[in-house]
Amino acid sequence: MPQNFVLLNTEMMHHISNILRQQKVLKYVTDIGSSLRMQMDISTLLNRVAAAACEALGFRYSALYLAGIDGLFHVQATSGIPVEEEIYLRQHPLSSDIVAFLIDEKYRMSNSYFISAESPLWQNELFSKHFVIIEDEQDVLPSPLPSQLWQTADLIAIPLMSAENSLLGFLTPDAPLDGLRPDVEMMASLELLANQAAIVIEGARLYEATKQSSEERAALIEIGRALFSPVALRDLHSVYETIYEQVRRVMPVDALFVARYYRADDKLSVDYIVDEGIVYPLNAYKVVPIWARKLLLKEYKAFSFATQEEYKAFALNDIAEESPDFIGSTRASESILFASVHFGEEVLGILSVQSYTPHVYTARHVEMLQEISIQAGIAITNARLYTELREAVQRAQESEQLKNHFLMTASHELRTPLTAIQGYLELLSIHGPILNEKDRTRFVANARRASEEVILLLGNVMDTSHLNQKEIALNLGAVQLHHALIPVLDIFEPTLVSQGRKVEVTVDDSFYVHADESRLRQVLLNVLSNALKYTPIGTNMIVSAERTNMYAMTKHIPSSAFTTLSQSSQNDAPFVVVSIRDWGNGIAPKDQEQLFTKFMRLPDAVKSIQRGSGLGLYLCRQLVEAMGGAIWVESTGVPREGATFLIALPEQPS
After folding, report:
1. Is 97 exposed, middle or buried (0-12, 13-18, 19+ CB in 10 A)?
2. In terms of Cα–Cα distance, which of 113, 87, 92, 91 is closest to 167?
3. Where are the alpha helices (DSSP H) in 315-362?
4. 365 by DSSP, 3-state: which?
5. How does DSSP classify residue 140?
6. Is-above-0.85 flag for pTM?
7. What are the pLDDT digits (tens) for 403-432?
8. Which CATH number is associated with domain 3-210?
9. Architecture field, domain 228-389
10. What does the alpha-carbon distance between residue 647 and residue 545 come to, in Å, rounded to a whole number?
11. pLDDT digit string (tens) for 142-182?
12. 339 within 8 A of 373, measured Cβ to Cβ
């Protein structure tokens, strides 16, 4: 057979093959174009493009790269590539430097690029490590030239260009079924497929962006609806749940937390935390981290981290060991967003969303989270204002009740001694000339005692008023405890004698306390007066004192009194504790804490014939705490076992 006939026949077969290939490519181009009308999700679309490169053009494998938000080109879809190799490719995205090697003009073929196995570029490890070589036997058609045979290290890169002629990504078909390297006609067919794929990918992205925008608007509307519902004012948790559900609509979220900042205490406390659908118990930072403070001080409005390594590098030496792990599981988050929650110029806290997948958040996600954080700020402010208003109304109602109770009590308590004074003065005025000296002296003493009772009652009221206005002044210094106690006992001497009582005093002369002497006497006077009023006639009392320290007192002192002391006292701080013991009916444990509140008289006291304003013990607590001490009562509440009032004051050397 003549040589020219063989060449002509080969050219004809090659021409026919190209026509058939182009027809097949056009079919797949049409199919890919129809994907846009079908509103196919972008992941399915990309897999379809990768498969078409193999099926339409006769390749065993293909990979499709697209530019990511991090500036790297990531594998988004593959066809035919084994699982292990696909994982490797996904773990090795292409940087701009690698892409620059790929699109070097020396490798251009048509409008694409072909890097042969013989290229010295493969000796560059920084380049070659981004790709895999799949050893595979191929069915090779007869070829006139060995240089046309496909080598396993050959690489084809077909650019995917946008309408603005920017690089969207690459299509990299591999291992042609015919075992031949590509020619210009093959490249033209691949470019035809790639151009249609780029148009469809751009259209799908535009559709996804439009859909995302619609979802974002819907999410904000839902959050706004929850925000202004009546329930939101009473239950912030319901608003946080809505925020979580709506954030999930617009961005990847594995975990979310809302932390509130209390500026007065410089405290950051978590209001809500959910991790993979599980709501976890709340917690608080013991120390506000530096990164959080930057948000709270408005140095930054938001932070975005693409990986756990980025976050660790940013927060290096700033994560205190005692700080809680806000995300409920022990798994470390990869992508992390933080945004400040604020209302107007006031920063109220922090909103964070986190994902266990790296590189998932875009600049739009950051913007969206900032918009949602504004909504959260409105919710927190509305709830706070509602709470403050409700508490103010409640306080006003309680104040009105207390005022009425006080006026009724004070009127009653003042009337009794004033009536006694008036009665004795009238007796002296009418019957004075005929009374003997003993009766006259008794009437005057009784009138004086009633006057002192009025003075004590009014003094307590005035001192309480001054305490409310923070006007009361203290003259603190070293006070000998025994010296302060004796004048108080002298005041009660007539009463003790008339009632057949005794007060046993065991107070060492060496005890000195840091106090205001006149105020200390006032406290002792009130406590001893109560002990005399509410215990049976004929029963005795014991006044004693002992030296102790803060640590020893913590075993017995109530939590309310301990909190006051612990704010300014160390464990080894020396104290003197004065005990006033009686054998009355005692005080039930449930009534002991409210005993020191304003206008409080226990039910048994109200029913008794003894008078009182309900201010004495309240005043005692305020004065003792102002002097750096504490006052409390110990009693089982069993009748005749009595009660012991304890007054702890800082010891001061004389």
Report:
1. exposed
2. 113
3. none
4. helix
5. P
6. no
7. 665 565 566 556 656 766 777 787 778 877
8. 3.30.450.40
9. 2-Layer Sandwich (3.30)
10. 9
11. 555 667 899 999 999 999 998 888 899 999 999 998 888 98
12. yes
